[in-house]
Each structure stands twice: as structure tokens, then as C-alpha cells.
């Protein structure tokens, strides 16, 4: 049982403002053990409730200041959101039917308009870029630069464009431009990964394959923390710019950058040539820019809430934990025993065993 309490921003408590309205309100769930009639006579009790049981909605529908001991996370106060949370009871069958339909339509359009040699523009795009230089390393870097320019550029324009065309429409446009460029870059890398100058050859070293495999496997847990909500990725749910704080975010505030660095170093070590090195330089450079750009965008959107999160997280993995700014809950492991992480595990293993299929498909395109 819980008692509902409505607190208006006209009270003496200072609540975050979104700059658009002057009145804010909170819905506070009070456990029955705290619902004594004398509870609110003591101001410290009210503040304690706000700290541990409030959910403050932000202007874009996300929330800050959320803590809920029912989430399975120890009762700490979070500035950001609890990542990878998946409640089966909150899912709508209709939403996932829409997701499957949208995914199928996107893949069909990608195949017809970009991949299929007789109808798509992918081959023409690769041929145009290949005309810039005879160097495979230069072409690899140019492909990554084009993708990075479109991907990061559109991410930077997100707030402005969403106001003009809506969040769902902009997500469709963003994916429609980014996905074909990403496919072209990946296919070109697969087809030319053994071109260029061999810099070292260490594949025969005992244990190296296992080291590379484990590094790649772990990297995928860092690479995709913001795609947990697949319904938002497909624009079934309204897309949001999330301020994640739990799970992998406690280790590093920019897990995608860390995962990409791990993936690049492992592949470059294994392949050992100039094309792989060029691809790694381009991808790591893009993600280092993403560290600055991501922090800038979150600061613009969340203001002081992001400053609070930034103060107890770090870009360098484990740095905030080691210097005491990040206190891991006793039940930290529960933040990983969730369906999205199990899904990533299955997909990562599937991608590894699907390498021969990926390589054969890429070779058949002759990009």
C-alpha cells in the first residue's frame, strides 16, 4: 500500500524548471510504513521522501531525480535514469508488432535502394569515393569521415530539427541517412581488411585469438547502452535523449567510445595491417569527438542534472570508482541481470558465428 502526495512548486522546495512554465508538480509514492499523519510535520521527513521516492518529469518526457527501491537497485538517489530496465508487464504487443513491421520495411528499403546492385545506389557511392584515391587507407578514412559528418552532424541538429518536423519524423530521417552510410563503411572494411601494408603478424601467438575474442565480446556490452529501448530506436515510442546513470554508465559515462576503442584495438592487433589501422584511427577519432559532443548536448538538455551526473562519473573506465566519486551499490550486479544485457549476449555470440555469412555477403557486393 502507498499514499499519494501532490507537492506544488509554489512550496518552499526548489524544483527543476524547464524554462517554459512556472508551475511544476510531483507525484510522490509514500510507503505505508511512512504514511503517519505526523510524517510531514518534520521538514526533514519531507526532504527524505523527495530524495528517495520522487520521480521528477523533465520537459521531454524523461525524468531526473528518480529513485525507486522497487527497481531492485539499492535505495540511492539517482540524478539520471535507470538504464536497461525492462518490465514485461509494461510492454504492449501492438508496439512490438509495429516494431517488427517497421524493421522489415527498413531492411527491405535498404536492400532495394542501397544494397541491390541493379536498383541500389550503394555501388555508385563506393565507386565515387574510390575515385578520390588509389589508397585503400584513404578511402577507408573518407568513408568514415562521411559517415561521422552525417551521423554526428544530425545528432547536433537534433533539438532544432525535432521542433520543426517532430521527434519521430526526425528519427526516421536520421536513420535513413546514417544506416546506408554505415553499411557501406562496414562492407568496404570487410572486403579490404587484408589490403594495404602488413605491419605485424601475431596471429600465431598462443592465446592471442582468445584475448581478441574476449575483448570483442566485452566491447559489445559498452557499444550499445543507448539502444536498449528498441521501440524508441524504431520511433514506435517517441525518441528521447536519455540521461542514463546505472549499469555500464557507472564504469564510464561514454561506454560507446570505450567499446569502439576496444573493438578497434582488438581487430587491429589481429589483422595487423595499414587498412585496419586506418579504420581504427577514423573510428576512434569519431568517437572521441562524440565524447565532447555528447556531453555538450546533455548539458544543453539537462543543465544542472547533467553536472551532478558528470561529477560522479568518468570518461576513463573505472576512474570515478577508483577515486571515490562513484559508489557502487551492494547489489550492483542486479543492474546487469536484465533482459537487454542477455539480448546483447545472444546477439554478440550470433554475430561471431555469422562472420562467414557476413564476409561472403560483403564479397558478393564487390564494393
What does this protein look like?
The chain has a two-stranded antiparallel ribbon with strand order 1-2. The chain has one domain (88-365). With 367 residues, the protein is mainly alpha-helical. It has helices at residues 43-53, 93-115, 122-130, 136-156, 158-165, 167-192, 208-223, 230-233, 255-271, 274-302, 304-311, 319-322, 339-353, 355-365; strands spanning 2-8, 25-31, 56-57, 63-64. The chain is globular and about 55 Å long. A hairpin with a 5-residue loop joins strand 3 and strand 4. It contains 14 helices and 4 strands. It comes from Asparagus officinalis (Garden asparagus).
Summed up, what is this model?
It is a multi-pass membrane protein. The protein has about 375 residues and is mostly helical. The protein has one domain.
